[in-house]
Amino acid sequence: ETWLGSGSDGSELEDDAWGFGENHDVPSKWAPPHPPPVTTPPPVQRHDSRRVDGHARSPSVSGSGGAAPPRLQQRAHEPCAVNDLSLGGVGLCNLGNTCFMNAVLQCLSFTRPLSTYILLDQYASAKCRTSPFGGELLEAYAELVRELWSPHTPAAIAPRRFKAEIGLLAARFAGYGQQDAQELLRFLLDGLHTEVNRITVQPQYAAVPDEVGRAPLNDQLGFHRAWHLARDNSQIHDVFGGVLRSTLQCAGCGHTSYAWDPYCDISLEIPSDATTLPDLFANFVKKEELEGDERPTCAACKRRAGSTKAIAFEKLPEILVVHLKRFSFEGYRGKKISQDIRFPVEQLDLDPYCASDTHDGAVYRLFGVTMHWGSFEGGHYTAVCRHPAGARWLAFNDSVVRIASESDLCGRGAYILFYERVHSDHAS
């Protein structure tokens, strides 16, 4: 095993979108209510002057600041560009402290299922007609991905249109100050999800019936799966979405309650004695004793009592994004944890951290790392990515791209890790 880092619209719900199988179907009496039919609002016209976060949108912004390059003609019956080893090594110009954005965009570009979704134009028929973003963020990102994988693109491009669009939707990304790469990643994935959400009308809020918490575990799981899919169901969640199971056991009466939380990335604390990524996962799922003011009110005995809390992975995603929490605050001062964390490249096994009998293939393979160099007060982001078509690694430092190797993956600089799931039929 290789380890690195030592010093160097009411759509129909997919029956098994959470991977739970037919035995977990939700009882009909608990099924979330279907939303009433509504009149679809007209799409936002590109020529208007709508504002988001107080900024006017300019229709003249293009991806490279001028005429867009020829669009990569990609058809479903043709091999996708991500399978061409000669493509993909395009740099991104720094527009002014935008290295945090460039590093994340490169890692997402090398995320095979996401880029395939874009390059084969599969997203075009999935646009959510009620998205508050009007489809502009999705189109800006899609244009950028096509440029990054086009044989007609120069060695580096300036992602001006994408920068402008995301800045209009979030004021913190509008200027040219250094921002956190993980915050941008979360905002972008959430925005893309909103743009292609299969649920075009959100159901009205309804409280969870009390009897759900007293039902068998499988029935509870089915209810929460249906509740989630009635609100959030997109290709983004198909690729990045997983589910955590939280278990709470009352020390007074012994009652066990469950909760499920969907996620698109996992943030891991870095204990002082941790040296490897599995150490961080073990710390993440370890049992926690809730005492004193942290005691919850038990749903069964209705008393505040000491409880034991545990977390496990209920559903694993196709693409696992792991954020190492290197930045923290002590009072009014921030600090960066530069601890060397070694991480596996070919085989990250999450089986020890999964709820029993709820997963199929828990092994992951590293394909991208967003790196941060420097301190809390200032630093620089880069990326190292494995090409989807082979074992070639590329190092991205804004517009500069070079052939890399596994030795470029330094554990002290690793900030966000991108893993792809290895299914049993492909494991060797």
Top keywords for this entry?
8 helices, 428 residues, alpha+beta, globular
Can I get a quick summary?
This protein is α+β, with helices and mostly antiparallel strands and 428 residues long. Helix content is 20%, strand content 23%.
Rounded radius of gyration (Å)? 23 Å
End-to-end gap: 13 Å
Helix content: 10-25%
**Runs with pLDDT <50, length 5+?**
6-77
Overall mean pLDDT: 82
Based on DSSP secondary structure assignment, what is the total number of beta strands? Answer: 20
Please describe the biggest sheet, giving its number of strands, its sense, and whether it closes into a barrel: 8 strands, mixed
Question: What percentage of the residues does DSSP assign to strands (E)?
Answer: 15-25%
Shape category: globular
| Contiguous helical run count | 8
What structural class is derived from the secondary structure elements?
Answer: alpha+beta
Provide the succession of SSEs: EEEEHHHEHHHHEEEHEEEEEEEEEEEE
Instruction: State the assembly state of the protein chains.
Output: single chain
